[in-house]
Amino acid sequence: MDKNLLIRNLRNVPNFPKEGIQFKDVSTLFKNPACVKEMLNELVNIYKDKGITKVVGIESRGFVMGAMLAEKLGAGFIMCRKPGKLPAKTISAEYNKEYGTDTIEMHEDALGENEIVLIHDDLLATGGSMKAAIELVNKFAPKKVYVNFLIELRMEGLKGREFIGEDAEISTLLTLTE
User: Fold this and answer.
1) Among this protein's residues, is 61 annotated catalytic?
2) Catalytic site residue 98?
3) What secondary structure does DSSP assign to 50-113, as a single string?
């Protein structure tokens, strides 16, 4: 995988969404077809032999690559969304993030017990939204849960991997330390 291609196309937005946050904007990766191809091919290579039956994408940037990956793996795609966005009965989990609290939901019939699930999101910082997504997915008692991020931030004060713990096997395409 050409990590330099991805790093060159990743936009940093200072002080967003609030002062002191250095936001890593993956939209610049998604608009470049070479980056999309690079990321998708790498993800398919990582997960093609894992028996994934469902890919869960976390709103909203997790939907982009998550849906493409589900199609390539021959798996279904499940949306993990903010409250009030899913039309049928849901289950929910609240979590803390670096600049506040939030809640995510899934349809109560989204998964079955025999599923092998890959939860995908764009970026691992504090790990709050992913830990909440893992909590929701585990309510369905799947056979196995994998977790993937396009980018992992390993910077002072961001210990997302440690916060998530051992609840799932985690992989990332890029690890940024500054």
Assistant:
1) yes
2) yes
3) TT--EEEEETTHHHHHHHHHHHHHT-EEEEEB-TT-SSS-EEEEEEEETTEEEEEEEETTS--T
From 98, 108, 135, 154, the catalytic residue: 98
**pLDDT tens, the chain, 178 aa long:** 999 999 999 999 999 988 888 889 999 999 999 999 999 999 999 999 999 999 999 999 999 999 999 999 999 999 999 999 999 999 999 998 766 789 999 999 999 999 999 999 999 988 999 999 999 999 999 999 999 999 999 887 788 999 998 878 999 999 998 7
Exactly one of 59, 61, 115, 152 is catalytic; name it. 61
pTM above 0.90, yes or no: yes
